[in-house]
From TrEMBL:
<comment type="similarity">
    <text>Belongs to the CarA family.</text>
</comment>
<feature type="domain" description="Carbamoyl-phosphate synthase small subunit N-terminal">
    <location>
        <begin position="26"/>
        <end position="167"/>
    </location>
</feature>
<dbReference type="InterPro" id="IPR029062">
    <property type="entry name" value="Class_I_gatase-like"/>
</dbReference>
<dbReference type="GO" id="GO:0006526">
    <property type="term" value="P:L-arginine biosynthetic process"/>
</dbReference>
<dbReference type="Pfam" id="PF00117">
    <property type="entry name" value="GATase"/>
</dbReference>
<dbReference type="InterPro" id="IPR017926">
    <property type="entry name" value="GATASE"/>
</dbReference>
<dbReference type="Pfam" id="PF00988">
    <property type="entry name" value="CPSase_sm_chain"/>
</dbReference>
<protein>
    <recommendedName>
        <fullName>Carbamoyl phosphate synthase arginine-specific small chain</fullName>
        <ecNumber>6.3.5.5</ecNumber>
    </recommendedName>
</protein>
<keyword id="KW-0028">Amino-acid biosynthesis</keyword>
<dbReference type="GO" id="GO:0004088">
    <property type="term" value="F:carbamoyl-phosphate synthase (glutamine-hydrolyzing) activity"/>
</dbReference>
<dbReference type="GO" id="GO:0006541">
    <property type="term" value="P:glutamine metabolic process"/>
</dbReference>
<dbReference type="InterPro" id="IPR002474">
    <property type="entry name" value="CarbamoylP_synth_ssu_N"/>
</dbReference>
<keyword id="KW-0436">Ligase</keyword>
<feature type="region of interest" description="Disordered">
    <location>
        <begin position="411"/>
        <end position="430"/>
    </location>
</feature>
<keyword id="KW-0315">Glutamine amidotransferase</keyword>
<comment type="pathway">
    <text>Amino-acid biosynthesis; L-arginine biosynthesis; carbamoyl phosphate from bicarbonate: step 1/1.</text>
</comment>
<dbReference type="GO" id="GO:0006207">
    <property type="term" value="P:'de novo' pyrimidine nucleobase biosynthetic process"/>
</dbReference>
Amino acid sequence: MFIRYSIPVVRLSRALATHGGPIAAVPASLHLKTGQSFHGRSFGAPRSVFGETVFSTSITSYTESMTDPSYRGQILVFTTPLIGNYGVPSNSAPFDSQDVGVVLESQGIQCAAVIVADVAEKFSHHKAVESLAAWCQRHDVPGVTGVDTRAITRLLRDQGTTLGRIAVGNDVSAPPPQEHEYWDPSKENLVDQISTKEPYQLNPTGSIKIAVLDFGAKANILRSLVRRDAAVTVLPWNYDFNSIRDQFDGLFLTNGPGDPTHCMEAALKLRKTLAEWDRPVFGICMGHQIIGMAAGLDAYRMTFGNRGHNQPVLALASAGSITAGRVYVTSQNHQYALQLQDPFPAGWEPFFINCNDSSVEGIKSTAESGKKVWGVQFHPESAGGPLDTIEMFTDFVSECQAHKAAMSSLNLKSTMAPPPARQRAAAAAN
């Protein structure tokens, strides 16, 4: 005879999550230059700001998005309804062969402000140390919650990226700004504001030496290089790389914010590099656009831009881990793109194209050019995913290692070769 026992099970409740403190009932509004206004509550820093209003379709990794330097000057609207539920981690990491000093994408929040439908007052994650609201307040970044982000997204989807202003507290009762009062971050060289001012090294004992031109680098780009045993030297965006290029086995150009035409100085220097240097070059996002301008392509401002972790791209050519004809799901954050033209500049070919809007998502040097140069608009290193194209970093590092090995072999053969006949005759006479 079996007796069935009833065993009580304790239900884990959201009440066990860490309470970040209630969101104050301070009013806040988003005003768009096109005339629409949205009203909610303030969280984070209680101050008003201007910026470029954009939306991201990412459903996770809000901390990585907010610390991405490519969002500098932008009011970031998350389409995911609930933001902040897993809090914010400590942003400190070692400088070693596995990490680059930070956990997130930079040392602080880069976007001008953040807008969410519902900010979580409680958060739960074993690595979390503070709430989203507390983090924003500590970095002096305002936020707005309690607004219809779906309606904002539909507006931005229809009319494109729009200048905006967040008004907080007493500023809410003031009239919306006049059109001429809105600040346009695209008119400034945001790259110059965010790029490193002095060169610095990471993982100096790595097996190959990679120079990185910093246009606003995400930390995971640098992390992806050092974890593949690269010694990385990070340089300012407009550094004269040509004066030191022979010290390195490869060149990497990072992502960055704003209009790439502000960085024409870097494109002209790169044009000289590409014409005279035969070592591998790889660029991501802004770096891809700089490579394109150096090759002779034009960059243009897109109506909407692409931001999110779910952008499909079609590979038009094969290279390394990339197979022509395959669709890859990618992470993106950009407002500008390279112009597709026919014919393409000599020595270059399209590499990827966006499956949604047919914009150029990558270019590469042709096999006939004898060069090893790639540029992609998306982020292969995407923290939070998807990681469909992460092996492009392995491809780049492998090409740098192969070039270094070939050069070492060539140098060894030249030192072992017998001296020319004239030198042998002179030696015999002595």
